[in-house]
Amino acid sequence: MRFRRRASPLHAARASAGGAYCTALAACALALQHPLLLGAVILAVTGAGIAAGARHELATAAKFSIPLALLVALVNPLVVRDGLTVFFRLGEIPPFGQVDLTVEALVYGVLLGARVVAVALCCALFVAAVDPDETLRLFRRVSFRSALTAALAVRLMPVLARDSRRMADAAACRPESGRGSAPGRVAVLRAVATSALDRAVDVAATLEVRGYGARTAVRAGAEPWSRHDVAFAASAVMLVALAIAAAVAGVGTFAAYPALRAPVGAGEAVLAVLIVLVALAPFADRRGIER
Amino acid sequence: MSAVLRVEGVTYTYGGAAAPSLRDVSLRVAAGEFVVVAGLSASGKSTLLRAAAGLVPHFHGGTFAGRVVVGGLDTRDHGPSDMSAVAGTLFQDPETQIVLGTVRNELAFPLENRGAPPAAVARGVEEVALALGIEALLDRSTSELSGGELQRVALGAALAGRPRLVLLDEPTSQLDPVAGDELVWLLRRLNEEWGTAVVLAEHRLERCLAHADRVVVLEGGAVVCDAPPREFLSWAGERAPALQTPGARLFARAGLRPPPAGVKEARATLRAHGLLDEEAGPPAPTAVAAVERPSLSDRARARLRRGDLPPAALGCRGLWVEMPGGRAVLRAVDLRVEAGERVALMGRNGAGKSTLLRHLGGLRRPTRGRVEAAGRVALLLQNPNDYLLHERVADEAPAEALAAVGLAALGDRHPRDLSGGERQRLALAIVMGGDTPAAVCLDEPTRGMDRAAKGDLADRLRALAASGVAVLVATHDAEFAAAFAERVVLIADGRPIADGPIADVLTGGWYFATETARIVGALTPEEGAERIRRRLTMEVTP
Hints:
The complex is a heterodimer. By secondary structure, chain A is mainly α. Chain A is 66% helix and 5% strand. Chain A contains ten helices and two strands, in the order ααααββαααααα. In chain A, strand 1 (86-93) and strand 2 (97-102) form a beta hairpin. In chain A, helix 2 (15-31) runs antiparallel to helix 3 (35-51) and helix 2 runs antiparallel to helix 5. The radius of gyration of chain A is 24 Å and the shape is flat. The model of chain A has no long low-confidence stretch (mean pLDDT 86). By secondary structure, chain B is α/β, with parallel strands linked by helices. Chain B folds into three domains: 1-86 and 166-229, 3-Layer(aba) Sandwich (Rossmann fold), CATH 3.40.50.300; 95-162, no CATH class; 289-526, Rossmann fold, CATH 3.40.50. Helix content of chain B is 36%, strand content 22%. Chain B has helices at residues 45-52, 55-58, 80-83, 103-113, 118-132, 147-159, 177-193, 229-239, 246-254, 263-272, 286-289, 298-306, 353-360, 393-396, 399-404, 420-432, 451-466, 478-484, 502-505, 515-520, 525-540, and strands at residues 3-13, 22-30, 34-38, 63-70, 73-74, 87-90, 165-169, 197-201, 214-219, 222-227, 314-322, 328-337, 342-346, 368-373, 377-380, 439-443, 470-474, 487-492, 495-501. In chain B, the strands form four sheets. In chain B, strands 6-7-8-3-9-10 form a six-stranded mixed beta sheet, with helices on both faces. Chain B is globular, with a radius of gyration of 25 Å. Residues 286-294 of chain B have low confidence and may be disordered. Chains A and B meet through helix 6, helix 7 and helix 8 of A and helix 3, helix 4, strand 15 and helix 16 of B.
């Protein structure tokens, strides 16, 4: 999964605006507990991913995060004793003791899993649609060391991925029997990890000779804000404002224990629609975007 | 003329190393000079360049004595980041020299690091891109570039700040001959047009001597020769034959002086002596391309007509390889390599050489067609480091295989402590295993090797073939092919376009030709010298 320049308003926006937009969506996923609102956030991220042409990246993120979400959903009823509605009694199971599975714990587990998926989708959108070079530049102005580490990590990942593919091929070239015959995956992984150090030294040397350690103040570009920059930044601000307003106004309250309480009224419905509309509105303006 | 690089009595030992890598090295490079640094592997070339870039000792640590001054900055007081303002640096491996995601950002990176205002960054990027002819790549992702393009972009990043000196450590070792020659021509252009001083460490001297003002030779970390190219070649003829170019060997064997620094100079000397057959010229490439059935040896073709062809040691019939998008990488390739035959597989990058070897080695399945082998096929891929998985050499391969490549005495060493040539031999021992395979396929085995190591590998491959093993080597290196092969298959656009005896194929082209072939139309310096002697005799005898 990596950044690829595509013809979309999100790709056309500057990294600070695009990054703020993805962060705001992730913040909404973490702040809003109501199932309807969480569903709205997932719908908004998915819509944004499709509009940004990052469908494949979001699908990959979903493929890896959904099993984790299912695990969370299954484990939560086993370890949480709260909830009044027992739907299955497992009896005495060491080390948990008496285990009663409750609807409330199951539903809460599913919501926790959904939140994991939502955050993973936001991260995938960020990786696929926000220019990492610009992001590193932003970071460098804030923290030199963090940006150096990030630059190394970002550059090393594709190099190590190629190394591991080549090493797996080389391992397959070994004869099938005798000393030095086909090694296991662990041996290949260990070799990749060993070579990672050499590779990191090479990349770090390149950063040095390109003047990265000079600690000269990097000047911010004076580029004017485009309408895409403004749209995504405004969308990010409005998404955060909606989450805060919902918390202040008591809209979208949710309680799992001891009994499920997730009122769905006009407030929740309007808020859910607003989240989707505000998140997808910046994609409506495609003027000047190459197709 | 003012010195842009001054090295004064530098002795340097890497941390934990037993012996110094540089010994009392003193050197001056004037502004606008083009200096080639020559020497065998581990002679100290890379360390010298790293000292000039400030990486030694700031980045690598170790014990440093002496003084290096670059553009007025003393490396004892300034680290590599400061030095980058006066010296651009380019290393061997293009993959680890690209830091950012797009070409434009990569070129802008050094300028931004120096705090240049956005307008100056934008102008610097445009100028360096135009100068290196990479303006069409500016908005491309760096992950989509070929090795040659990556190396050009890395050179662009090194030059973006308009340094007075550019330091290059074997920048062409990972490139095919076309991309390698283009890079050296670029260096010459920026040396002539911008006056940038160039210090280039390189093994393939025939590629760069014609452009050089001086050659500095390192041996065991010490400077043993510092002279103009012709004087260096005369010195190498007596003191370091492994550093002689094929052209110089040709002249030495023919008894001609002075040794030529390049093809043009060699032809001019021969012309002046009336020894150049201007009318004949090299044989036309088409003369060897027209074969009734491509990729069968003459011997095999004759037996095929008689219908008594035994199974090949290695071969394929109607091999098609198509990528998921439908692009065909190999197109109906027929190839047959007999037991004991030595075949060089040549062609530009992306022609399909590596893909063909991977399919012959059983690493990939073809889309259509059949691979035939009389037994196990040992496949050695490009990077020998990829084969090193254990802590001891003895754990990597059987004792008999280690003995066969001359590494029996190094069983207790860590594989990554071996030299480049030794690692290559160890990787060969790993894929050979305990039993003798029917065929051995090697993919670009000479990358980064010095001439002595290449000669050693050619000897081993000939010995292997003499024991009945079919040897197939994909290589860009025409000199190496001339040293080991008896037959060349030239591949382009996924199919063989020429297949014949090496003397025919490698004397009939521009790029796929040895240096001697380009001078006198003969494959090796020995054959070329014989041809020159014959002409001399003809001239003397009326």
